[in-house]
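Me: I hope this is not a bother. Any chance you could explain this protein sequence and its structure tokens? It all follows right here:
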Amino acid sequence: MRMRKKKYLEERLSAVSDYLYISDSEDRNFNTAILNKQYIDFTQWFGSDKPLFLEIGCGKGKFALEYAKSHPDINLIAVEKNSNVIVEACESAKRENLKNLRFIKCGAEYLERHIKEKSINGIFLNFSCPFPKKSYASHRLTHINFLNIYKKLMKKDAEIHQKTDNMHFFEFSIEQFTLGGFILKNISLDLHNSDFEGNIETEYEHRFASLGQPIYRLEAKLNND
């Protein structure tokens, strides 16, 4: 079911334009759209050249806000393609005057149009849509097609950190990371009952964990040997 457009959405998006970059591509074919590079000058946008981190699918921004606040030594780019959702995240960031958090409205397949290669120090994939139907596997954000995009953006020692509540999606992700040449570490099949420290919950995570559902987590690093 499609989400109804929020009231005064365009006005609200305009009011947070200092925090939000909206991808304006009219080309629905990302294979050709990404050829027209429109790189964002992140040093100018953030006003600093701190290490860049990327959250793909930030939702209403709970993780992004908490991570940015607890890591003032980095700059975080939070990506979301749903206008209704990202506007709330931007409003929260602006309200808290967070200098090291910015947002891009676009699908993950368009990221290399706006972000230069080898510029990202780490990527977060928090509770991405699992797309349960096999025919939709290519839409999953850990599908090899997306991993190949991330690999272009990542610096040599960058890592991807993934969290999900969906066991089958997690198993699929492990297969895809392995296929993509990543080395996996710190794999947890029940994050909230592990000894992992420093976890920042997302909106979905809090809901699922409160119901007693296990949270799956992994870290993936490129094999550069």
Notes: The domain at 48-222 is CATH 3.40.50.150 (Rossmann fold). The chain has a mean pLDDT of 93. Residues 81 and 106 are 5 Å apart (CA to CA). The first strand starts at residue 20 and ends at 22.
